């Protein structure tokens, strides 16, 4: 095994210890719950990386003997897997945790556990310790694999558990996974982030960049495809730095090619790509690999060079646009999406207008737009921020209006054309199904439920801005 991987890999002895805790908990639960299994309610907030973590936490709980329920009211254990990316995300979690207090009053044996990016921050862990005495277990991102031990300490020893030590992070292979879907799978290829964009909390709560072993990832995907999964989502904060210290044949474009070579009918998506490390090789691999969805999520954050510099993004508007031009040259039908922050500290209206003109130039399919949210501990937290929230709200609306116009123009061009879509679920309208094109556009059409989880060809008849309507071909 590669040395860099070895440094982060959690040793087998540690995992075996956790298996012993799993057995202990399982025995205790069997003796306490003689009629039916104990129930866990697990809720994940935030990004797909967190969702993938949530599936492992559920895998661990399942091994301990829990089954899952859909609301905290009926749960014997509640686990909130939290997100810290913006203040709003944290406020929601605190609100939802507060709402558990009366439920726990009725069911004092219920265990309440919190984990994820929020709890990795010492200030949050301290607040929970002092002001939320009904919370039993709080653990950070770096020790999530020790959940069996934490449940044991709470359930069998009656102790409150706080485990949030900082660390560079680790890689844990071989944990049980209880996947939420049967046709769409999340596959992390790397963890952590080294970029330290000046507004972002992620590098502080997720540790340093570390990549999973190339063959392990390929084998995991092979297994998923054999199990019938149709959409493989490769995840990382910055997939372009996957194995960046290893030879090219182990880096991300090579990984895409190796997965593309796996036999079977499935599509490959990936996120997120950082423009700083997005290379022509990656774009070429995308263009050449038939199974790779022609969708590139390339967060620009701002269209102004001064703001980009202050954000510590390490690319210019020009470099970003040249990547976009190359990608469109190789894949004229490519769908591009992005993340944008409005109202970064010190950003002027003129600078914001550079973002508008970039959006107009790139013609994104859709955008994830955010008003800057100060995160304690990041560099931007201490920067002067003279523009009011209200003013930022006006700019924000200007951006979303522009994107709405562009999205509408793009979807209008889809009329009369057929797309291969992965059918995902029943739509709100009776008798309709909902799926997504390769380019990540939602498409709804009449069809039988049995199509869910398979590919269908759909002709667009009535494109609207955010949803296009069509009919089965
Ligand atoms: N404020 C607003 N948006 C943020 N993001 C990350 N940190 C912040 C913050 N402090 C956005 C970025 C990133 C996305 C996942 O969240 O646009 O790409
Ligand atoms: Fe945050 Fe930047 Fe890392 Fe993305 S690349 S997780 S925005 S620090």
What does this structure look like?
The protein is 37% helix and 20% strand. It folds into four domains: 161 residues, Rossmann fold; 113 residues, Transcription Regulator spoIIAA (2-Layer Sandwich); 118 residues, Transcription Regulator spoIIAA (2-Layer Sandwich), CATH 3.30.750; 55 residues, Beta Barrel (OB fold (Dihydrolipoamide Acetyltransferase, E2P)), CATH 2.40.50. With 473 residues, the protein is an alpha/beta fold. The chain is globular. A six-stranded parallel β-sheet has the order 2-1-3-4-5-6, with helices on both faces. Strands 15-16-17-19-18 form a five-stranded mixed barrel. Strand 15 and strand 16 form a beta hairpin. Helix 2 crosses helix 3 and helix 10 packs parallel to helix 11. The chain binds 5'-deoxyadenosine and iron/sulfur cluster. Iron/sulfur cluster binds next to helix 8.
Helix and strand layout, with pairings?
Elements: H1 3-8, H2 12-32, E1 39-44, H3 48-64, E2 67-68, E3 77-82, H4 87-98, H5 100-106, E4 111-116, H6 122-131, E5 137-139, H7 147-155, E6 161-163, E7 184-188, E8 190-191, H8 202-206, E9 210-211, H9 214-226, E10 231-235, H10 252-260, E11 267-271, H11 280-288, E12 295-297, H12 305-310, H13 317-330, E13 335-342, H14 349-362, E14 366-371, H15 389-412, E15 418-426, E16 432-436, E17 442-446, E18 455-463, E19 467-472
Parallel strand pairs: 1-2, 1-3, 3-4, 4-5, 5-6, 7-10, 10-11, 12-13, 13-14, 17-19
Antiparallel strand pairs: 8-9, 15-16, 15-18, 16-17, 18-19
Helix pairs in contact: 2-3, 2-7, 10-11, 11-13, 14-15
The structure holds 5'-deoxyadenosine and iron/sulfur cluster (SF4).
Iron/sulfur cluster (SF4) binds at residues 193, 195-197, 200, 202-203, 237-238, 274.
